[in-house]
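Team,

Forwarding the record for the chain on the shared tracking sheet. I've put the sequence and predicted structure together so nobody has to dig through attachments.
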Amino acid sequence: MLTKGDDYPIHQTPEPIAYAGSDRNFYDRYFFNAYAPDGSAFVAAAFGVYPALNVADAHVAIVKDGKERCLHASRVLGLERMDIRVGPIAIDVVEPLQVLKLTIAGTEGIAGEVTFEGRAFPIEEPRFVRRVGPRLVMDYTRLTQNVRASGWLEVDGERIELSGWVGTRDRSWGIRPVGAPDPQPVPGAGGPQFFWQWTPVNFRDRSVFFHINADADGRPWNTRAVILPDGSGPGGGWHTEAATMETDLKPGTKHARSGRLTIPLEQGAATVTFEPIATFLMRGIGYGGEWRHGALKGELAVAREDIDCAGFDPADPGNLHIQAISKATLSVPGQADQQGIGVFEQLIVGPYRPLGF
């Protein structure tokens, strides 16, 4: 099966680009978010291609005034991976690794055109590889880049101009659970367990990144922190795997009330403190729920979903995965403190003894 991608020098195997190995869970995904300088409005989007499932899907969510207004779209891929449009939602790679554009043709009261321009060269996070017993459930690479966002959004006739907005975009590809879940458990694997924190933050002249995957006893199996000045090229900035996050949870929940990230530097430790001010529920862009990534919805399906992101039930398993839009303070020895804004993404499933689960 030849497709448009076959006319580009991007092959990784002897097969046509339409085929991505033999794992049915292979995926290739774009993610974007952006937020007003005061955190009063927020947008997130995801666009995924699932070659072995022959599905593509796209999602946009706009958070404002305690409401999350989402637009979902899914279609049959037809094996054509170079067509990055699903219904009203499209991605345009204007300048690879630097400028991308999200377009939402007016549908179900939601529209917009948002351009994301990188503040520095993207960072490459360590490769994520995780097995449950003998079964490979994750094996993927992700690049992450903080951005300046411009353009506009519209929700139910209200136009939002993106003046001074910043955010984060990422690209990841490889293997992770997508589409219909596997019905057959792995003998002896025990119950599900997953601990994840991801905190890209925008400051005046630099970005700070941190993520951690850890086992039930708190031992990291994938982690990295980066301090990246604006304009940095490939491999720039300060990278370490020795950063730590102290998390204070809201009583009775698995969501943070505050956080304190410590990053060791040559001149002493830098710290970033987090103050969550609003919540974005990740199911609004396909991380779980009826519109989960890779779900087969037919030739083309488009729907709107409205979510209460101020009064939701935090104990509902569908609401565990969030991004908390957060004010942040960066303290570096010998420098004046900087105020910034970012997200504190959180997902705790199953036991995690350091926080009492």
